[in-house]
Design brief:
The protein is mainly β and 132 residues long. It has a single domain, classed as Metal Binding Protein, Guanine Nucleotide Exchange Factor, Chain A. The chain is built from 2 helices and 9 strands. The strands form 2 sheets. The chain has a 6-stranded antiparallel sheet with strand order 3-4-8-7-6-5. It is globular and about 40 Å long. Residues 8-130 form the MsrB domain. It comes from Stutzerimonas tarimensis. The active site is at residue 119.
């Protein structure tokens, strides 16, 4: 995997204000406001910053959290995780392994077969629908 590294100014030029806030500054969109929180379109969700494939729609489910949720990434190599103790909580942050974009968090309360819930900001994703 070729790493993508750019200055914050370069990212600011390429991304929308919301994408920049979420992906490069670690922000979070409000629950139930993201464009993909209830999308059922078959396809692959890619990183909005670098285009890396991250999640397949076959692993998406309605967690009731207000954010797109998946029980596994397309590959273990697609994501990097970090301890996050911000906002008085202990969580595991997930980032795109290729460009280090903040995606969201992973929690151990998801469905089988993994038991994981990847709770991801829509602003960090780009859905590429499957061809019919």
């Amino acid at each position: 995997m070729n790493k993508v590294e750019k200055s914050l100014d370069a990212w600011r030029e390429e991304l929308s204000d919301e994408q920049f806030h979420v992906c490069r500054l670690g922000g979070t969109e409000r629950a139930f406001t993201g464009r993909y929180h209830d999308t059922k379109t078959p396809g692959v969700y890619h990183c909005a910053c670098c285009g890396e494939p991250l999640f397949d729609s076959d692993t998406k489910y309605d967690s009731g959290s207000g954010w797109p949720s998946y029980f596994q990434p397309v590959s273990d190599a697609a994501l990097a995780s970090h301890d996050d103790s911000s906002h008085g909580m202990r969580r595991t942050e997930v980032r795109c392994a290729r460009c280090d974009a903040h995606l969201g968090h992973v929690f151990p309360d998801g469905p089988e077969p993994t038991g994981l819930r990847f709770c991801i900001n829509s602003a960090s994703l780009e859905l590429r629908p499957r061809e019919a």
